[in-house]
Amino acid sequence: MPFLTVNNSGFAICEQKLTLELMQQLVGNPEEIAFIDAVYHQFSDKSIVILVDDDGIRKRLPLVAITKKKIKLVGQLVIVHVIGSDFFHLTQKQVSIVKRELTLVLPLTKLGD
Is 108 helix (H, G, I), strand (E, B) or coil? Predict the structure, then answer.
């Protein structure tokens, strides 16, 4: 089962094993490992969570997506399923929910521009 990343190229399905280190690398950049912040309750399936670089706005990372609740998301996103405090891959139904309910911002712009 997959998890999703969202960046300047749009959605990407990833099949790798989810680890903290991988998630930190994916929301960060190659030069640094990011601290992760989780954005909850943005989808009709409340177990879907968006992981972001918790310092993305200060770093002026590009705006990538906007949720139905009008939350602006910057940088590369990792989208997973959460049970308790553990992150898991998405089901195919959850992938469809994310693609239907998350608005991508293309071409990408930086917040404040």
Answer: strand
Read off the pLDDT of residues 20-52 as tens digits, 9 standing for 90 and up: 888 988 897 767 778 999 999 999 999 999 999
Closest by Cα among 20, 12, 11 to 87? 20
Cα distances from 58 to residues 20, 68, 97, in angstroms, run: 22, 23, 29
Could you identify the residue written with the tokens 């959605």?
11
Residue 5 half-sphere exposure toward CB, CA atoms < 13 A: 18
DSSP per-residue codes, 29-94: BTTBPPPEEEE-S-SSSTTEEEEEETTTTTTTPEEEEE-TT--EEES-EEEEEEETTEEEPPPHHH
Other CB atoms within 10 A of residue 17 CB = 8
- DSSP-based three-state secondary structure for 13: strand
